[in-house]
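Supplementary Data S3. Sequence and structure tokens for construct A.
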Amino acid sequence: MHSPAPSPAQIRKQIKSQRRKLTDRQRRQSAWLASRFLPKLVPLLPKGAKIAFYLDSFGEMPTVVIAKFCQKYGYQGYLPITRQSQPLTFAPIMATLTKTPLKKHRLGMLEPICRPHQDAKAMDAIICPLVAVDKAGVRLGMGGGYYDRTFERTKRCLKIAWCYEFQVLDKLHKQPWDQSVDIIISDKVIRRIF
């Protein structure tokens, strides 16, 4: 007899605990290792692609390397804007991430205060945070549903998970509202789901 699968709350607690144990150096090293896989996205993206990503705030793998990737390949980077119970919209970053004006919103993350905002349908790729993802692309987020609502509205863009390898699980239970990712990039490997 085998034990029941852990609940989403149990998975969140375990993974968040593992992330908190990482030093800043380990987090930066993991991001650098993952950044080696970003050029594999180039053949999948149009020239001048619009790439949305997030600013790491809660122990996620750092995303500054994604901003550098966008700059190197001539892509426009965007950051998410959250509105309660609404899909995300996205605001452009300036020439460099450090010049982009930011504010802390009610959930504790930094978001840009620049305009104009773009709908998710305008993005060519959305690189999303997560707590866990399985090898079939089923994503477990923080529980607010922002990315599920956003991904539901856009079928065209690449949906990309950015995570530590320990966040990649064999199988997660998929809820009816869950939206899967197309690609998983970790500090160890890139996986294409489609």
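Construct B, processed identically:
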Amino acid sequence: MKTIFLDLATINADNSHSTLDCDNVLTIGNFDGVHLGHQAMLKQLQTSASEQQLATMVMIFEPQPREYFAQLKSDPLAAPARLTSQDEKLALLSEFGIDTVVIAKFDEAFRSLSAAQFADMLIHHLRVKSLVLGDDFKFGHDRTGDSEFLRNYGLPVTNLQTITDTQAVAEKEPLTLQDNRISSTRIRELLAKGDLKTAAHLLNRDYTITGEVVGGDKIGRTLDFPTANIELNRIRPALHGVYGVDVVVLDAEGKIIPHAFDNLANEGKTGIAGLLEHSLFGTANIGVRPSVDKPNDWRLEVFFPEFSGDLYGKTLQVRFLHHLHDERKYDGLESLKAGIQQDVVDLLQWRKNAD
């Protein structure tokens, strides 16, 4: 999969020159989470590209538009929590065989494009011949751009109707669902209340976060619960609390490294096997750690029972499987230690029952 970083500051004013070597069918959006609604769009993109003998192209935005506007107001936490970081999003899109992903820098210049300027950029700079869009897609600084505008501009558009959760999971395990639109917002709401099961159905996979293990404040070590502090790569996460998780180690290409934890273990302390192959079971705390009194310090910390080894610098993918409870504030470190100890006991019991 080819990745292009689109910065208007580097594009010629007339958009007449393209470095691309093929014509494309394009879809546009945040694709945060790459959920079943997005997946339906990607499948239609593949179908349209095959019919027209064109390549597939997806345009995403960095930062996401609502993140940009929140930053303008000096209130970054006003933006929705991210489901997927840029790298996670790219990894998911690559699984669908997309030929090119355009990462558009969303800034003042980009948001100021008129609908006509935006369409010109698609035609001349990105070699777009047709598009696949949602039925509510709008663009241009005046919001006058839509599918009909593009058609009148000479760009054929295939519109995909909204996908609902009951349509998407009708053939799967029955859930208590309403006929609601599948959206990143809905999945954020599910994750926020710990409903991993329904979120997983709408994502078509368990929810995961991937990041590098970095240095922390080592509070867990002083409590006899040393944790791996995993980079979130987002302003704040979409879920909070204490979870049972499966964790794998990824290589530079995002592939799972077989038996990675066994090879990293010290003194034979190889930990407790996870539910998935090559994974290790862990207990995770994600959020602001209210007992430590650092309200804006969002962390993902994972404790691996019965494991000892150096994980610094490793890229871990954390798969959230069981929500135990929301974050709790404890009175003092001894109370916190007792709370963590009970969480580990409870989650180990869940792991035992999950076999």
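Confidence is low (pLDDT under 50) at residues 170-174. The radius of gyration is 22 Å.
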